[in-house]
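Q: Protein A?
A:
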Amino acid sequence: MAKMDEWSMRLTSEEQVAPSTIRSYQCTLRQFTEFLVDARYSWTAACEREFGPGKHPVAICHEWNTIAHLNDYEGDPEARPFTREEIQKFLDYADEQVERAVNGRRKGALAPYRDATLFKVMYGWGLRRTETSKLDIADWGRNPAAPEFGRYRRTPGRAGQALGDQRQVRGLPGRAGPAEGPDSPLDKARLRQPPFRGRD
């Protein structure tokens, strides 16, 4: 058991392995030792028969010498995903910025409206950042299984993590609402965008 403590300490202090990784190692070792000492597999009797009385495997991973899984997220706090409550607050804040710009009767209301729309599209359709940056209106398509969502129900994730990675992304009910017609955030953003006249 002292070897177990020494090994865990080396992973923490010398190799600086993440706690979640150490816990995974310890869980794997615990499962293996539990298999060895389980009476259903007769490993204890086999070891005593081969190596002598009292020489058999024992459990070395316990609650007091292993890392407990206490938090839902064990990664870098700066990269922690939002909770549903935090996402709602974030989207509400984005909408408030639009209302503040519109009520202020000054230029620049289109930019926060564009940003709020993109945030909702990313969340509603589960798009990656790169996929969102490459998104175009022509990418959107209908989903025959959900005609009530119109032509904005499905979009291909054409700029994935790997070269040539393309996937069909469908909005989730409750996250991506009906997105076609006068109430569509995308259509509203397009209507408010001034036309590009090019160079004279």
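Q: Protein B?
A:
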Amino acid sequence: MLTTRDAAALLARLGDGAPLSTLLPILGFTESVRVGGREIRRLGLPSAPAMVRLAARGSLRALVCEWDDGPVERDAVVRAARQLAREGSALHWVMLARWRSGRAATICAPAIGESSATASLHVDLTQPRASDAETVAALAADLSGPDVAVHLRWREALGREALGRRFYKNLVRAIDRLAEEAEGRVNRPNRRPGET
């Protein structure tokens, strides 16, 4: 089983230049093949990746794309993953993408035939957070059972991260609104840092 510490070390290796396909074994994929440009162009990515690999296990598929340079295109990768899910309706996809110049990676897993929300994780490989390592460890935690169950667990792990970020952003906004609308005096030790 991949521990959070092991996952953090793996993310650090990716940040140091290890190929993104290094993640494939922890997802249960043992082999991958290079994919040609024509096959990848139909996904509508903004630029051609320098390297594309495809891995398969049962109905599970992993598409790994790496760009040497260019801007981080997280939204384009999520759209491409949705396109894969629409076209390969009997397959369960996970897409891994990395931009070496921006040192960022995205992992996403669309539902079969999905055209809206896609569970995803975006990692800043220059400073991966503990929650990023926890999510990667969760992706590798249980690869047993039917492929549809494995894919669902991947989506849950990736979705939990997105929900957490959204929840905390909304919580901070709500607390700020409450603080702005509050009336009365507050003792100096209870004020926010920097307030007078």
